[in-house]
Structure formats: structure tokens, C-alpha cells
């Protein structure tokens, strides 16, 4: 699951960049991105730094500069973004942390593992092409 609010905000910012992608000259500053998604500008600036380090966006400094996706929206999955901001969490266990995987599985184990797999598949198979505006 997406545990970090930052991950959700990063997906929001990436969705805006995907909307702009079809215009090969369009870039957006972190301030413009923040305004478009009603987010704090300092937070978006930090998010953009991480997305840039992760190779998902490219930026150009100075007047007229800004950010754009580093590759086509169809090549970037929600999981690509989540991997930059999320850390692996233990699977929910009704018997408490550390039980499943070390002892007999709890009664919820198989259901929780199945649910986690569905969500993992969703993140992996959902790309930012959903947001891309067609020319």
C-alpha cells in the first residue's frame, strides 16, 4: 500500500507532467506544479529533486526552465514513483509483527498476501499514459 503521503503527492505531480507531455516544448516549474495540484511549493521542490535523481523527470534551470518527464508516460508506472518514496513494510499479521514467515501463518495471511499482490500488480501495470493528453 502507499504509506507515504509524499508518494501520493509525487504521483499527483507526475500526473500533471504526463498531461503536458504531448507538447514537446512544455515544461513546468515546481511552483507551477504545486499550484496545479494544490500542494505546498517547498514540498514539490523536494519531490522534484527525488524524481530527478530517480531518472523520472528532467529539469532545466533558469528563466523559461522547468521540469518534464524524462521518458514517455507509458514507460513510467506508479510503482516507479512509489519505489522512490516508499519503504518495504511487513505484511499485516493478526498475531503481531514477526509471526508470519517465522511460524505457521496466521488466519489472515493468505488473504493479506493476495491483496498485497493485487495492489502490487496495479502499481506495476498502471502507467502515467492514463493522464497523457492526446494532441
Keywords:
mainly alpha; two-stranded antiparallel sheet; 5 helices
Outline the structure in words.
The chain is mainly alpha-helical and 135 residues long. It is 45% helix and 6% strand. It has helices at 5-20, 30-36, 41-53, 78-85, 109-125; strands at residues 57-60, 66-69. It has a two-stranded antiparallel sheet with strand order 1-2. A hairpin with a 5-residue loop joins strand 1 and strand 2 (66-69). Helix 1 crosses helix 3 (41-53) and helix 1 runs antiparallel to helix 4. The longest helix has 17 residues, at 109-125. The two termini are 34 Å apart. The mean pLDDT is 89.
Summarize the structure.
By secondary structure, the chain is mainly alpha-helical. The chain has helices spanning 5-20, 30-36, 41-53, 78-85, 109-125; strands at 57-60, 66-69.
List the helices and strands and how they pair.
Blueprint: H1 5-20, H2 30-36, H3 41-53, E1 57-60, E2 66-69, H4 78-85, H5 109-125
Antiparallel strand pairs: 1-2
Main β-sheet description: 2 strands, antiparallel
Name the shape in a single word: elongated
Which regions contain 5 or more consecutive residues with pLDDT less than 50?
Answer: none
Query: How many beta strands in the DSSP annotation?
Result: 2
In terms of quaternary structure, the protein is: single chain
SS field, number of helical segments? 5
Radius of gyration: 18 Å
Mean pLDDT rating: 89
Strand content: 5-15%
N-C termini distance: 34 Å
Class derived from helix and strand content: mainly alpha
Query: What's the helix-strand series?
Result: HHHEEHH
Strand order of the largest sheet: 1-2
Helix content: 40-55%
